[in-house]
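Chain A, query sequence.
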Amino acid sequence: MDAIKGRRPWGERKKMRRGRPVDEAEEEEEEARRLEIVDMSGMGLDSLPNPSPLNIGTIGKLDLSSNNLQSIPESVTARMVNLIVLDVHSNQLKSLPNSIGCLSKLKTLNVSANFLESLPTTIENCRSLEDLNANFNKLTKLPDTIGFELVNLKTLSVNSNKLIYLPHSISHLTNLRALDARLNCLRSLPDDLENLINLQTLNISQNFHYLSTLPYSVGLLLSLVELDVSYNNITTLPDSLGCLRKLQKLNVEGNPLVSPPAGVVERGLDAVKEYLTEKMKGSHKEEESPKNSGRSWIGKLVKYGTFNGRQRHGGRATREDQSQGFVMPSYRPIDGLASPRYTGIFSPGRIFSPKTYTGMFSPRRIFSPKT
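Chain A, predicted structure.
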């Protein structure tokens, strides 16, 4: 395809065609059709010719995959200003050029199956990037601030590396749809994953004995459809997973799970979500040991109607209610005390204080004729 010469930058061109305005997306599609597609894959290349016989500035897609490239010249990358797709998978690259940050229009980058130990921090300047594939390398970390700049990223694939952690900035990738971090050495996940509001697929399987816990925020990924945490060292799934209404696939195989127990897992996803939901409410009966069988203070307050002002058994306290000490007088429903002014009186520290509030729930007070 012929090179594009003498064309002004996109923003300076008159956005009209046949007397009608042209929107930006349509204009970009037209520009992409004018750019060249260069396929140099599988040619046994050890290096790129420099100077290159190609008119690099007109290339929109460049495929250099399945060669023997050990490096990409900085000068070549810096001149590929219109590049949209770059595929260099299955080479022998040990590093990427810093000039990759000049590829401001780059949307797809495939650097999988190389020998990369890190990604250049300048990759953050590729702000149009939507798909990053760095699978099957030797990455030990990702740039700490990668999530602050690559705001358009939709797919991040970093499986089969040596990652110990994912940077906390990943939680800023609000357009991310799929995150694949399986087959690494992850010790933990960022705590604030709930910001990934569009994440649909999360695969953190096969981190084996390194990954033993999941953050509570995993259960706040409200768009999540598929979750794979198989073959890790996880003993307890966070209760918040019961909130994932869109979740359709959950793989927990190969974990030493205690909660939920194997019997619940065998009954399928719905049973697991129901178990975790009940456990989160504090009303699920634990059967592990008497020591751990007690319910949370919040669960007890909910059970005995303290948070909604409802009375059990027609407004009369049962013997069980009295023994637990959570009976509220019928003339004082909690709905009337929902303002911040009274919030503090229901903290666990004050309710169960042996000094100040012990008498509040004493049998003498509960069975007082005045009450």
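Residues 1-18, 283-368 have pLDDT under 50 and may be disordered. The radius of gyration is 29 Å.
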